[in-house]
Amino acid sequence: MDRYEIERLVLGSLRAIFSDWEEGNEEVRRVARRHPDRFRVAVTINPVMGRDHLTRLEDYRQDELVLGVRLYPIYHDYELTDGGDILEALLARIAEARWPVFLPLRLMMNWGLPVLPIAQVAGLLARFPHLTLILGGVNYGELKHALPLLRAHPHVFLETSCLQLRGALEQVAADIGAERLLFGTGLPLQNPGCEIAKIAHADLSEMERAQIFAENAIRLFGGRL
């Protein structure tokens, strides 16, 4: 972080994706408590494993270091269009609280990894049109389908870590607005230097760069960041 002059990160847990989601969340929460000046957390919830999901959600919401919820339908074996009663209850509570949902289409920019169909995201937003959604993992083929969602839903933001298409940042800034782009590092699976460089060298104004790197996140998360 210091090498790339990153002041603060929002952490997620790989353990929470591939193993025990509750323990994974506790690990990153402990890190954030030890370094509250550097880290915040977006917890992962698996609606098809575990119990007392709504109770856990309320516990997370009371933690001032937790900023939102991460969902990984592909890795947790459910679909956003038919995720069951627990998922629906969680999403209803999250939308009501205006808490952000981090939803990556892919775990990292690697063509060998599965990709969440953007049609499932569209179905989710049709059911919860006021949900604040941070859409990640978008690259070449997904961008043309993501843009209509961004136009139709002003509470949807695009995280930049997988967006490698030449001119894509400029296209989103021109079509939707730079205020809807959020800087993402892809750490620890991607090199943050690449993610910084593509924004630093994009054909954007200094004001737009400042928005993407920090100001949009500060506005979205408010005083909690």
From TrEMBL:
The keyword Lyase applies. It comes from the Bacteria. Residues 25-222 form the Amidohydrolase-related domain. Gene3D superfamilies: Metal-dependent hydrolases (3.20.20.140). InterPro entries: ACMSD, Amidohydro-rel, Metal_Hydrolase. One of its GO terms (molecular function) is hydrolase activity. GO terms for cellular component: cytoplasm. The keyword Transit peptide does not apply. GO terms for biological process: secondary metabolic process. Pfam families: Amidohydro_2 (PF04909). Keywords: Lyase. This is Hypothetical conserved protein. It comes from uncultured Acidobacteriota bacterium. The lineage of its organism: Bacteria, Pseudomonadati, Acidobacteriota, environmental samples.
